[in-house]
């Protein structure tokens, strides 16, 4: 499987920056990324422009970005309807001759805040020699071997997962259905099934787990079922500790779970007619829960009343879900059973570290590295280093790579060679001119420390003695990410910081904000040691009670430069961890929450600084 999938990625690499007439592999006719609003759409369009300029994308294949309309959330199911209408308005009847890749990429990425500003689909992947791969590149590459098996239609996938697989040697006659839906099915533990869609087969005894790819009919789909419901509906395979193709083994009981799916253009026409008759989607519709659960001869409409996974119950939601069930009921669902496959989700900070730092098998299968597109340099020490921290930047003495150290994952960054990155830490898009030591279970994203003048230190309330000169130390279990913002028509910088284990979405009553867990303590401790006035931007009123969480809590100070912002955040972290109220004061400073950052973010500045870093590293290779 490793050899096969490595060739899948390599084949795609050969068409990056090439025109369609020179493609050596089958590819999509049209690609669509969904965005949660017009602002996120603009962010995506800007990043696509950069990728085209760097020849990081295939040419002559249009990539469109569609934005959800203003108002209540419509979910990725609603985004699917919006995208189909956009495509039909643009291409008219020609659409029905196209094979379209639809990537659902909207959302705030609350479980992976480093992707909140620029989007999960543009998250870095530790792969690439002359520039970084991003999640978009992996998505464009992954499904190329399946394209010849598809008739014209829409292939739907999400922006925060990987699929590693092989089709085996005898798969030429196995094709996607020419009508209705076709879904990919993967062997999984029952614990994985609880959080995903689970397939119930018409005739499960016809499935041979040793064959890499098979096609069968689906009886019904269960969405995030309990283990008891899986067993009751016959979704659980009989044998335990089963061996599947290519050496894949599932400990304990197993079931087949979902990932991506396809529908032919007969379904596209159904959905377009639905919009024509009913108008825009009203409510939060899930492409997996509301489309797939309606399919197969065993489907029922019980799920349309289950609002457990809906963030906001709008007045017409139940009615809309019932209408979609009626629309799709009876539509066949064919399964491409991929016994030689692994579905890997990477949408949380924990998963990010696990797969990029610890999962050697996954890294080998995708050809990932630990030291990718970086500039390592030996810098002066002692008095010369002290001068550097307070003044002009001098050129590096010599350049190296850090590949032999087998430490953490570092990508698209510029660091002194004597830096230390722990085995379970990720550093991305960072620039440090003095050595940095990064502790276990850390993520540093978009952070910078180059220099601070005496006047800057005085403005921050930091003494010269306290400023790190020989090395910057990042304590373990910390997430740090710097975001440029527009404040009073000026660009300033905010570095957010959390404990890696903290759930930013976990709510409490608004009058109990002081007891929210934060960096191993509680917010009242942070307010006390930093003299900060902690407020909540927008309480959650979804259940009628005013609630707050870390996402909406104004904790993070703004500063004039990235270096000021980073060092101020680091001093805040150390003040709380040491319970020392003399380290730093946030009195009178503008404080931001993650929610307010997304409203005031300066995307132009963020992309400019990232591109400047790209040019620095690129020139360092010359």
Structural account:
29% of the residues lie in helices and 25% in strands. It contains 17 helices and 37 strands. The strands form 11 sheets. Strands 2-1-3-6-13-8-14-10-9 form a 9-stranded mixed beta sheet. Strands 16-19-22-25-28-29-36-37 form an 8-stranded mixed beta sheet. Strand 1 (30-35), helix 2 and strand 2 (63-67) form a beta-alpha-beta unit. Helix 1 crosses helix 4 (135-142) and helix 3 (75-91) packs across helix 7 (265-278). The chain starts with a helix and ends with a helix. InterPro entries: GDP_fucose_pyrophosphorylase (IPR012887). Residues 93-558 form the GDP-fucose pyrophosphorylase domain. Keywords: Nucleotide-binding, Transferase.
List keywords for this structure.
622 residues, alpha/beta, nine-stranded mixed beta sheet, eight-stranded mixed beta sheet, 37 strands, 29% helix, globular, GDP_fucose_pyrophosphorylase, transferase, transferase activity, transferring phosphorus-containing groups, nucleotide-binding
Number of helices: 17
Shape by Cα distribution: globular
Proportion in β-strands:
25-35%
Helix-strand makeup class: alpha/beta
How many strands appear in the DSSP assignment?
37
Q: Can you give the helix content as a percent range?
A: 25-40%
The CA-CA distance between the termini, in Å, is 36 Å
> The biggest beta sheet, please?
9 strands, mixed
Q: Which segments are poorly predicted (pLDDT under 50) over 5 or more consecutive residues? A: 382-400
How would you summarize what this structure contains?
This is GDP-fucose pyrophosphorylase domain-containing protein. The protein is an alpha/beta fold.
């Amino acid at each position: 499987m490793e050899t096969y999938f490595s060739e899948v990625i390599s084949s795609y690499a050969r068409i990056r920056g090439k025109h369609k007439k020179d493609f050596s592999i089958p590819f999509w006719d049209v690609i669509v990324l969904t965005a949660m609003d017009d602002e996120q759409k603009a962010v995506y369009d800007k990043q696509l422009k950069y990728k085209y300029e760097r020849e990081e994308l295939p040419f002559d294949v249009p990539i469109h970005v569609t934005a959800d309309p203003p108002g209540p959330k419509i979910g990725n199911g609603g985004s699917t309807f919006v995208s189909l209408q956009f495509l039909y308005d643009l291409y008219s009847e020609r659409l029905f001759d196209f094979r379209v890749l639809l990537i659902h990429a909207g959302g705030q990425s609350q479980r992976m805040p480093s992707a909140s500003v620029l989007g999960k689909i543009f998250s870095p992947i530790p792969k690439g020699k002359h520039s970084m791969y991003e999640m978009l590149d992996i998505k464009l590459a992954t499904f190329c071997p399946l394209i010849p098996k598809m008739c014209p239609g829409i292939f739907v996938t999400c922006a925060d997962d990987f699929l590693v697989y092989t089709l085996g040697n005898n798969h030429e006659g196995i094709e996607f259905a020419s009508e209705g839906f076709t879904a990919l099915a993967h062997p999984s533990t029952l614990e994985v099934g609880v959080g995903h869609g689970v397939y119930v087969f018409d005739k499960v005894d016809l499935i041979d787990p040793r064959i890499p790819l098979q096609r069968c009919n689906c009886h019904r789909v269960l969405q995030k079922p309990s283990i008891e419901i899986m067993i009751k509906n016959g979704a659980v395979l009989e044998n335990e500790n089963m061996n599947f193709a290519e050496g894949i083994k599932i400990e304990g009981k197993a079931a087949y779970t979902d990932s991506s799916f396809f529908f032919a253009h007969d379904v596209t026409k159904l959905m377009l007619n639905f919009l024509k008759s009913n108008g825009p989607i009203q409510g939060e519709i899930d492409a997996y829960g509301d489309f797939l659960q309606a399919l197969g001869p065993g489907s029922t409409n019980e799920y349309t009343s289950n609002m457990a996974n809906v963030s906001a119950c709008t007045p017409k939601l139940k009615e809309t879900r019932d209408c979609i069930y009626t629309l799709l009921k009876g539509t066949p669902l064919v399964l491409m059973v991929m016994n030689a496959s692994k579905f890997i989700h990477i949408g949380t900070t924990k998963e990010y570290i696990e797969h990029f730092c610890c999962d050697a098998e996954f890294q080998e299968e995708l050809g990932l590295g630990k030291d990718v597109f970086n500039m390592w340099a030996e810098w002066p020490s002692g008095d010369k280093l002290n001068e550097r921290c307070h003044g002009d930047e001098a050129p590096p003495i010599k350049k190296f790579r850090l590949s032999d150290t087998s430490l953490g994952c570092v990508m698209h960054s510029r660091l002194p060679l004597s830096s230390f990155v722990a085995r379970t830490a990720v550093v991305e898009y960072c620039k440090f001119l003095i050595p940095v030591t990064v502790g276990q279970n850390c993520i540093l994203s978009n952070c910078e420390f180059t220099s601070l003048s005496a006047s800057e230190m005085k403005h921050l309330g930091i003494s010269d003695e306290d400023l790190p000169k020989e090395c910057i130390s990042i304590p373990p279990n910390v997430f740090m990410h710097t975001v440029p913002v527009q404040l009073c028509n000026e660009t300033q910088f905010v570095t957010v910081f959390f404990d890696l284990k903290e759930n930013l979405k976990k709510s409490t009553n608004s009058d109990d904000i002081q007891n929210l867990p934060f960096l191993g303590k509680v917010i009242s401790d942070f307010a006390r040691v930093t003299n900060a006035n902690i407020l909540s931007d927008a309480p959650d009123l979804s259940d009628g009670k005013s609630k707050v969480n870390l996402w909406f809590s104004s904790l993070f100070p703004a500063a004039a430069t990235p270096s000021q912002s980073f060092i101020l955040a680091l001093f805040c972290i150390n003040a709380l961890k040491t319970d020392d109220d003399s380290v730093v004061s946030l009195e009178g400073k503008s404080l931001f929450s993650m929610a307010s950052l997304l409203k005031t973010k300066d995307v132009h500045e963020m992309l400019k600084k990232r591109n400047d870093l790209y040019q620095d590293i690129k020139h360092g290779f010359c």
